[in-house]
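Supplementary Note 2. Why include the ligand at all?

Several targets in our set were suspected to adopt different conformations when bound, so apo predictions alone were not considered sufficient. For every target with a known small-molecule partner we therefore ran a joint prediction. The input for nicotinamide-adenine-dinucleotide is given below.
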Amino acid sequence: MIQVGVNGYGTIGKRVADAVAAQPDMALTGVAKTRPNYEAEAAVRKGYPLYAAIPERADLFHDAGIDLAGEVEDMVMTADVIVDTTPSGVGADNRELYERYDTPAILQGGEDADVADVSFNARSNYDLARDDDVDTARVVSCNTTGLSRLLTPLIESYGVEKSRVTLVRRGGDPGQTSRGPINDILPDPATIPSHHGPDVNTIIPDVDIDTLGVKVPATLMHLHSVNVTLDEAPSADEVRDLLSAESRLFLVPEETGIDGTGKLKEFAMDTGRPRGDLWENCIWEHSVSMEGRDLYLFQSIHQESDVIPENIDAIRALLDWEDRETSMATTDETLGVGL
Ligand code: NAD
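The joint prediction is reproduced in token form.
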């Protein structure tokens, strides 16, 4: 069994912890938190050992009646691997702690690419993280994950000459009360390209991609407007068949009446998905169109959850525990990925 510690228990961390607990070959060492808030209370109710992320704040947990299993260093010492799900930039500071105990670590997409030995997407470059010299992997952001999953099968089957993507981005996650805009539509960033294209190149170095970002008053999901010029000119049906064969790409059928991200989330909740999570890229099937060699489509990305299966696969890759197909199949089966 792989002993996994999760440092940082917010939007991504709590989902990673649940996913780790569901794996047949992993055990959750515990989770580290900075404050005894509602998420700490929920972790305790689930029976997850709780560690103080900031030792000086341990008394706050005692005052709140929450028992601690120890301090974050104890967790790092015990675990075979740490998944660091702290806010952007904090993971870079934590690297030294993981190195001190020789504990491999997985960082998240909010960190700069050079913070980790490799950037990771299971479908695109799993084997890079298996190298003996690799001790840290960065699971790229929700948007980069969604774009890498889409482009990789297109590159393999048809070749890609050029990709242009406009990312309509949610202003914040549902729990982020301080984020916005609440009544605006912002070019974000107004400069071009947005960071997403270069970030895709950390996963697929040779792909030619330009990205533009727009921020809108929504919390549910991101939406990508995608144009890819392929080297070949397959039919739209052939592209649909190719994409629907990928377990982490969900082609939303027209007849479901799902016309946007609101109904997608309803669908996820109605079908019993934990937290209404959508781990797959959600591609509107009837948007998939070909004009000559130009592919057009819309896809939505659930920012809070699409990176969760990738973190699980990154654990197995970093420890060279399983090959890509086995790991992805196990992750998909245990979580229920594939709509
Ligand atoms: P979050 O703010 O929801 O959670 C981070 C948690 O870490 C919080 O509970 C915070 O209290 C805790 N924390 C702060 N400092 C800490 C420290 N020193 N040690 C331990 N814990 C600490 O953030 P998030 O949305 O889960 O993002 C985490 C990472 O995942 C970031 O790199 C982010 O860019 C990336 N990511 C976020 C999303 C998303 O949409 N939320 C999607 C993909 C990737």
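The pocket of nicotinamide-adenine-dinucleotide is lined by residues 7-13, 32, 34, 53, 85-88, 90, 108-111, 141-142, 173, 303-304, 307 (CB under 6 Å). The CA atoms of residues 165 and 226 lie 5 Å apart. Comparable summaries for the other entries are listed in the accompanying table.
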